[in-house]
Amino acid sequence: MEIPSSLLSLSLVLLFSFVLATSADVHENFVQCLTSHSQNATSISQIIYTPNNSSYTSVLDFSIRNLRFLTPETPKPLVIITPSNESHIQVAIICARNYGLQIRIRSGGHDHEGLSYVSHVPFFILDLINLRSVSVDVESSTAWVQAGATNGELYYSIAEKSKTLAFPAGTCPTVGVGGHISGGGYGMILRKFGLAADNVIDARIIDVNGGILDRESMGEDLFWAIRGGAGGSFGVVIAWKIKLVPVPSIVTVFKVSRTLEQNATMLLHRWQYIADKIDNDLVIATDITRVNSSEEGNKTVQVSFISLFLGRVDELLPLMQKNFPELGLVKEDCREMSWIESTLYIAGFSSGTSLDVLLDRTPDPRISFKVKLDYVKEPISKIGLEGIWKMLKEEEGAAARIITIPYGGKMSEIPESETPFPHRAGNIYHIAYAVNLEEGVELSNRYIDWTRRLYSYLAPYVSKSPREAYANYRDLDLGQNNDKGNTSYAQASIWGVKYFKNNFKRLVHVKTMVDPSNFFRHEQSIPAVSPWGKKRGN
Q1: Would you place residue 260 in the very low, low, confident or very high pLDDT band (cuts 50, 70, 90)?
Q2: Contact 1, 216 (CB under 8 A)
Q3: Which of 157, 389, 473, 520 could form a disulfide with 373 if both were Cys (CB 3.0 to 4.6 A apart)?
Q4: Is the CB of residue 145 less than 8 Å from the CB of residue 128?
Q5: Set 99, 473, 489, 499: catalytic member
Q6: pLDDT confidence of 36, banded at 50, 70, 90?
């Protein structure tokens, strides 16, 4: 563990000289602590932003991806810190502990409930945007990537060094790898290689005491917990060492869309029986939206089958003819390209878009939205699907989108206790449903309610006991911790078991060992329960 003697001295001095300050003074004392105890006061002053700073608003807003949390009423941080080296984070943690500020850790800003940049108690944002270097070692097929880098920046850096190496992370290029990998991280090659978190071989994390730990010094329990236990609970992950995976120089993609009038219901129903069992080199996802019907004035539902195949089109076509002939895939539907080009295709960029777009951290456009996610273990009946179509034809359905991602393959081979992410064998696919929100509180709430009604409707068709959820698709409707951090194991289990199943117990145990004071916390962070043996059944 690397803890400079100056930080140890600082921690002791502050612990014994701490004076309760009024909330109005807290941020001033916090900033003074940062500058006075930094190794370079000039350097750290350049990465501190308070509401009095002219750049405060632009720095805050830049990485807010959900406009639902960009309103005048949204609580704002007392301070934003954009560290440029590890010592800035160490000092920030120790000063925050001693002046009672809660920390929010932001890498890309895609937390669906805004938990990486919003809190209802006094807080500061640790924005990792300046810590985004990527170092690729082709010979060992590994890379070190800092937590502030995005998926796009990581993919771009890999492609600069190799056309036949990849990483099985997400399809959105502006997502930050810090939070993405912390919660699992799925993408279009998950059936071949598993999740992003399944391909982490080392990490660097700064703990509650300001110590910098790697896999060896943190121990296997904490290393297990940070690979799928979701961000913001155990410390500040500053870098991941990842295993890169082999891909062919040419892959094949296709997108085939069918409406209800073109047998979309039958096709999606059939898809459920083959999507998780087909060749592991092939992922066929679906994107479901409401569209205008060919009949004037009517609405219909369109199901788009979007695929990535790790091989050539001449290999794909017989595979599809054998397993999913109903789709009627032909060579003209397909395009061959490199894996890095496929990341642009899957992300929705038009043909010919420069790879440089992967380096653009600005999403276009930003929207206000609410999202939920379920796991499907048995095929939904045609009648069940028709009930979903009925809801999509409601007024709110015009702003909705439903995405399904098939599992099976490598996802079924990895034991559910291997990492905190437990959604492995037995899942055919996950179904995520989001709605873009209209302006105004009343309209916004009505659209949010639509997602809750769809959630209720799907109850008979999805996982049960528990009804599983995905930690990277935060949903505060499932439950949340108390603001003061004194959440019981029983209360946290309401949402925790949905995200982590039986792994939740081990996560709480690890949390209690490494952060017993529960400094790293938010509305759905893993709680510290101490003494563990006494309170685990509360």
Answers
A1: very high
A2: no
A3: 473
A4: no
A5: 473
A6: confident
Contact 91, 7 (CB under 8 A): yes
- The mean per-residue pLDDT over the stretch 496-500 comes to 98
| Token representation of residue 495 | 């949402």
Name residues whose C-beta falls within 8 Å of residue 533's C-beta, 6 or more positions apart in sequence: none
Using alpha carbons, select from 224, 308, 251 the residue that is nearest to residue 505. 224
Quick check: is 489 catalytic?
no
Whether the model pTM is above 0.70: yes
Cβ atoms of 488 and 534 within 8 Å: the answer is no
Do 218 and 525 contact (CB within 8 A), yes or no?
Answer: no
- Report the DSSP beta bridge partners of residue 203: 240
Q: Which of these, 272, 273, 283, lies nearest to 191 by C-alpha position? A: 283
Phi-psi bin for 465: left (phi > 0), alpha (psi -120 to 50), beta? left
For 327-398, where are the alpha helices, taking DSSP H only? Answer: 339-347, 382-392
pLDDT in tens, 363-395: 678 899 999 999 999 999 999 999 999 999 999
For 536: left if phi > 0, alpha if psi spans -120 to 50, otherwise beta; the answer is: alpha
Strands (E), 2-149: 48-49, 79-81, 102-106, 123-127, 134-137, 142-146
Q: What's the Cα-to-Cα distance from 172 to each of 125, 294, 341, 429, rounded to whole Å?
A: 23, 32, 14, 19
Question: Rounded CA gap, 246 and 162, in Å?
Answer: 10
Query: Which residues are CB-contacts of 277 (< 8 A; sequence separation ≥ 6)?
Result: 323, 408
What pLDDT band is residue 16 in, cutting at 50, 70 and 90? Answer: very low
d(CA 105, CA 88): 13
Question: Count of H helices and E strands in the chain?
Answer: 19, 18
Specify the range with the lowest mean pLDDT, choosing from 17-26, 72-81, 426-435.
Answer: 17-26
